[in-house]
Amino acid sequence: MSMKQELQQLKNRLNKSQVKLDAAKSRGDDLMVTKFTDDIDDLSKKISQLTHKQNFTLNKERKALLDMPFSREITKQEQSDMGKLKKSVRGLVVVHPLTKLGKELKLEVVTGFAPKQF
């Protein structure tokens, strides 16, 4: 299971636990209230750990791209035949500005990062 799916599943479980906690509070069931508050605390911890891990890997990837010696905008003509471009330039990484990585890098256009000039 991917990290994104696991995070979504944990958020769904957290939401269900919060709804059940509200129901238990309205009934006055103290045993169930303590159970669901413990569940909510555990799920919150797991969610925060996963989001931290996601941010860490994103920053690691961002730093790796910024350390590459060459980057430039990919033209529309090059974008139309991306396979040919990637075959001609070894180690090319293309980042779109609307992806998480593109937003993190604050890109405005599709940009290519490579170890050599292309």
UniProtKB/TrEMBL annotation:
UniProt-listed Pfam families: DUF2810
Biased composition (Polar residues): 1-18
Classification via InterPro entries: DUF2810 (IPR021230)
Region described as Disordered: 1-21
Protein name: YibL family ribosome-associated protein
Organism: Veronia pacifica
Source organism phylogeny: Bacteria, Pseudomonadati, Pseudomonadota, Gammaproteobacteria, Vibrionales
